[in-house]
Each structure stands twice: as C-alpha cells, then as structure tokens.
Amino acid sequence: AGKNEGKGQYRFFDPALSNTLNSRARLKQSMLEAIERDQFTLFYQPRVDVHSGELLSMEALIRWQHPELGIVSPAEFIPLAESTGIIVRIGEVVIDQACAQLAAWRDAGLRLVPVSINVSPKQFLRGGVQRQLSAALHRHRVPASLIEVEITESAMMGDHDEILAELAALRALGVKLHVDDFGTGYSSLSQLQRLKMDVLKVDRAFTSELGNSKEGKVFFQAIVSMAHALGMSVVAEGVETGEQLDILRGLDCNEVQGYYIARPVPAAGMQDMMQRRFLLGAPQVASAENSA
Ligand code: C2E
Ligand code: MG
Ligand code: MG
Ligand code: MG
C-alpha cells in the first residue's frame, strides 16, 4: 500500500513484499539449521478400531521444537518447506525418526503397531521416498509392514508419472498406502482403486458434520459403502465426540482417529497407549475438547 506516498519513491520494493521475502528467507534458513540442530521431532496420534478401540496404528506428526518459539505446528512451515524443496530433507528426518522409534520400541519389548507417515508430492520426485524409506528400514532393521504412507487426495491428482511410479515402488516394498484428507480433492473412488490405495482417511470436515446434518451422515455412509465395495478400508479423521463415534460405528466405518480418542503426544505418551492397547474403554484419555 501507499507506493505513491512520496517518501517511498526511491524504494524498489514494496516494504510488505520485501518483509515477506526477508522472513521467507529467514524461515528457510532456520529450517535448514533446525535439521542440523535436531529440532524436528515427531508426535504420535493413535488410530483405533471403531468397535473395540484397539490400537491399530499411529500417525507421525512433525513438530518443530524451536528454541525461542516453542513447539511450532507443521502448518507454519510445511508449505514453505514444500515450495523450497527443503521438504525432501525434512521428509528424510521424519522417515528416519519413525523407523528409529519403532526400533527403540521393539528393543523395549513393546508390541508394535505400524507408524503412518505423511509425505508431500515434492518428496516423490526421483524416487526419493522409496529410496529414503528402504535405507531407513534397513538401517534400523524394521520391516516395511510397519510403515504406512499417507498422501493427500489433492496431491495424487494429475496422474504425475513420478507419483504413480513411487506409489508402485512403495507398494512393492510392502507399505500400505493411505489417501489423506479424502473428500477435499476431486478424485474418483475408482481412480483411487486403480492406484491400489489401501485406506481412505476421510477429512475431518466430514466427520464434524456427522452429528449436525442428515446429509453429513448420508455422505459418509456413501463413502464407506463404496470404499468397502472397492476393497478399501475407511478411517474417520478428527473424531471429537462420543456422538460422532457412535454414528461411525453404525456406518461401519473401520477405524477412527481424533481428539476424542487421544491428541497427538510425544513418543513417551504413545508408549503408555501401546501398553494399554484398548483405548476406548475406561479410563478414557483426557481431552480438553469435549466433555463426554
Ligand atoms: P493430516 O495428515 O491430515 O493430520 C491430521 C491433523 O489433524 C493433525 O494436525 C492432527 O493433530 C489434527 N487432528 C487430529 N485429530 C483432531 C481432532 O479431533 N480435531 C482437530 N481439530 N484436529 C485433529 P497437525 O499435526 O497440525 O498436522 C497438520 C498437517 O501437517 C497434517 O495433516 C499433514 O498434512 C501435515 N504434516 C504433519 N506432519 C507432517 C510430516 O511429517 N510431513 C509432511 N509432509 N506433512 C506433515
Ligand atoms: Mg495425515
Ligand atoms: Mg488428514
Ligand atoms: Mg491435512
């Protein structure tokens, strides 16, 4: 704003733009330092069977433990990491930490369940994920069956050859493939079945509609029955209330994830849940979001 205000005439850059560039450059630089200084860490959120509440898997969600800012959420840095390509290096950290954590839990004698990793399409270029993942699995002596890969529905659009090739390579490696944020993109279920996706994770926008409208329930029901007919299983993301859980049980959704079951926690907190194993019985995991 105000480029004709007189005083600023000698400037080449809009100050807002130049600030943005500066802070983008700063953020980019501090992300690189964060990799070197080991500031990225994984939180884990359980995914459980809708009926029994048995822990079936857990999603690894990255956090940046910033020395001044505290815990920074991925929404703050993943977009810039993607547009600068740094996501390839951050993704490698995530893959290595997830495999290292599985190995540590194995060595501690815990009954293991798979860890689900989020990947961006940028990481798929030149076979990156498959290469990084096989190396990490080998390094930590962890079987590929303990890793699942989540890719958002919108990232899968466009049939990029690299994405198709990488999905095939991951499948050959033995990892299960999940469609993340399903319902927010424009893919068809038959297309996803052709890509041999194993699991649909329905976006939490649809879960939150469940108690609110008849349409929300009908929509979810349609997804579940089509997914099942095509051999895919269904996870509801963002389950926050007991009412949503009850509806999802009635709809024959397979698995649930969300604050009602547990918030994402550091590895130590996940270890407790691995030992409890059934997470929907009493004692319920405390959740600030609802009053069950
Ligand atoms: P996502 O993969 O769809 O992950 C689910 C997000 O929903 C997580 O946010 C999780 O904390 C949040 N969530 C879980 N249950 C509930 C609930 O009941 N209610 C509400 N309101 N939210 C819930 P988070 O951890 O902030 O991650 C946001 C996004 O950042 C992820 O969405 C994923 O797309 C991306 N992301 C996270 N970790 C990574 C990573 O390691 N690599 C990449 N490339 N992306 C990541
Ligand atoms: Mg995810
Ligand atoms: Mg999601
Ligand atoms: Mg998401």
From TrEMBL:
The chain holds residues 612 to 903 of 903 of the full protein. The keyword Transmembrane helix applies. Keywords: Membrane, Transmembrane, Transmembrane helix. This is Diguanylate cyclase (GGDEF) domain-containing protein. The keyword Transmembrane applies. Residues 24-278 form the EAL domain.
